[in-house]
Automatic annotation (TrEMBL):
<protein>
    <recommendedName>
        <fullName>Polymerase beta nucleotidyltransferase domain-containing protein</fullName>
    </recommendedName>
</protein>
<dbReference type="Pfam" id="PF18765">
    <property type="entry name" value="Polbeta"/>
</dbReference>
<feature type="domain" description="Polymerase beta nucleotidyltransferase">
    <location>
        <begin position="16"/>
        <end position="107"/>
    </location>
</feature>
<dbReference type="InterPro" id="IPR041633">
    <property type="entry name" value="Polbeta"/>
</dbReference>
<dbReference type="InterPro" id="IPR043519">
    <property type="entry name" value="NT_sf"/>
</dbReference>
Amino acid sequence: MNDGLPEGWRESAANWASGKNRICELFLFGSRAKGVFTDKSDIDIAYTLTGCDAGETLAYDIIEATTWESELQLIVSPMVQLHMADPLTDAIVWPAVRAHGQLIYSKLGQLPLG
């Protein structure tokens, strides 16, 4: 499905994620994953983190999220919006990822979440 993004962006994003020890999975979701985007649509990318303590993963997200989003904006597009998706507690992002998300990266040796 056409996502309106430059060829090779998925490989670049997956390579970026592979360099982050705590990122377990990376997904494209939202209008670009559904193929209903416009030129002004943002690029919604969700990630899951390794670890099972909800407080720890939330704290890690708070510390890293802004830096990670800036890094992905340089790699993919300034329109990237990065979202943490916690399969156990997230009532907004994770259901969207489950409904129409496209897997970009999965850490070897980790079972898929959710």
